[in-house]
Specification:
Elements: E1 21-22, E2 25-26, H1 29-32, H2 62-72, H3 91-104, E3 108-112, H4 115-126, E4 132-137, H5 141-150, E5 157-162, H6 167-183, E6 188-194, H7 206-216, E7 223-226, E8 244-248, E9 262-266, H8 268-281, H9 287-319, E10 324-328, H10 336-345, E11 352-357, H11 361-370, E12 375-376, E13 386-388, H12 400-405, E14 412-416, H13 422-435
Parallel strand pairs: 4-5, 4-6, 6-7, 7-8, 12-13
Antiparallel strand pairs: 1-2, 3-9, 8-9, 10-11, 11-14, 13-14
Helix pairs in contact: 3-9, 4-5, 4-8, 6-7, 9-13, 11-13
The chain binds pyridoxal-5'-phosphate.
Pyridoxal-5'-phosphate (PLP) binds near residues 115, 194, 198 and 260.
Amino acid sequence: MSDHDIDPTSPRMAPKPEVTKIDGRELKPSTLMMGYGYDPVLSEGSLKPPIFLTSTFAFPSAADGKRHFEGITGKRPGGADGLVYSRFNAPNQEILEDRLAVWDGAEDALSFSSGMTAICVLMLAYASKGDVIVHSGPLYAASEGFVAKWMSRWGVEYVDFPAGATREEIDAVLARAKDLASQNGGKVCMIYLESPGNPTNALVDVEAVKAARDEALDWDCPIAIDNTFLGPLWQRPLDQGADIVCYSLTKYVGGHSDLVAGSIAGAKKWMDPVRMLRNTMGGICDPNTAWMLLRSLETVELRMNRAGENAAKVCQFLAQHPKVEGLGYLGMIKDARQQDIYDRHCKGAGSTFSLLLKGGEAECFRFLDSLKIAKLAVSLGGTETLASHPASMTHLSVPEGRRAELGISDNLVRISIGIEDPDDLIADFEQALEAV
Ligand SMILES: *Cc1c(COP(=O)(O)O)cnc(C)c1O
C-alpha cells in the first residue's frame, strides 16, 4: 500500500517498515499472510484492513497527480506510485496483489474480477493479428473457447499439444506454430499451459516447455500457466521456468465457495502490458472481494493441507473398492513420465481427482444422487467436498471425439475433497458406492 498520504511529522502516525526477515531468516508465506503489505497505522490502527469503498483518491498536490498519471499512461516506466482511481488500483486490491505475489515468489501480481477475466485480459495483452498461441490441452473449457472462438476472430490462431507431451513433441509443435505464424505475418506470442489438466490431472512438463521455448524462439514469448488446481501451495511453476502464473481465486485461494475472482503473477516486465490493458478495460477485483480474499489467504495453507490429507485417505479407500475402475489422482500416478514430472514440479497431490466407476453415465448418476455429505456441484477447492459428472456438465459442450481424446469418459466423476472429517467422507462414499 502507498504511504504517500501519511503526515511524516506525526510520530504517532509513523508507518512501520515492512518485516519480511528476522535475523536473516526469510519469513514464510503463511506468516506474511497476517500482515504483509498493510500497516495498521495507515488506518486508525485497525488490525484488519478496512474495505475502501471509494472510486477515486485525493492527490497531495497537483504535481503528484501529474506524476501518477505519467505512470498510469506509461509516459514514465514503473506504473503509478500512488493511488489514483479504482479501475486502476485501490488499497484492498494492492494488499491482495502483494500477498498473492509472495506465494508464487513473483515480483508483481494483478487481481481480476474472475479467473476468466484474468486469462482473457492476459491473452489480449500479448496477442496481435497474425500471432499464434501455443497451448497445452485440455484447458479449462472457457479458456479453450476463448482461444478457439474469440481470438481467432481477431486473426490469432492456435496450435495445441497434449499435457503429457515429451520435449521432442513440444519441439515439433513449436516448429509448426512458428511456420504458421510466419505465414500469417505474426509471431508465436504466448505459450499457455494448464497443469494438471482438468479433469484427468495430466501434468505438463514446464521445464521441457521452457527449454524448448529458449531454443526455438529468440524473442520475448512468455510461458503462462493456469495453476488453479495445485497453487499456491502444491506447485510454484515460476520455479520451473514459467513466466506468468494464472489463477481462478474462486477455487482453493478463495476456498469457501463464496466469491469469484482471478489473478496473474510474474516479473514486472510481464505484468506491465497486462496492467496497461486492465487500466483501459477494467476487470480489476472489487474491494469487498479483495478483502474476503485477504481473509482466505490467512488460512489457505491450513485448508489446503487438510484437504490434501483428506484426499489421500479417501483415495486409498476408493482405490481398493470393487466398484471402482480407476482413479486420476496425483498421489497414485501409474505412468513413469507423469511421475517424473510430478516429482520435479509438485509438492503435493492436491485434493481434486477423477474417479472412474465400473459402468457409465447411469452408474455415475446413481452414485452422485446417493451422496449425503458431498454436494453435487461444479467448481472445486472449497471447504466442502463437491462431486460432478464432467461429460454431462462442465465438458458437455466439448465434441464427443475430443472428449474421448481427453479421457473424459461417461464413467468419470470429478471429486474435490474439502476439509470435513475424513472418516465421515469415506462413510459417505462407501454408502453411495453401495447404492450403485
Ligand atoms: C474455474 C477455473 C477457471 C475460471 O475461473 P473463474 O474464476 O470461474 O472465472 C480457470 N481455470 C481453471 C483451471 C478453473 O478451474
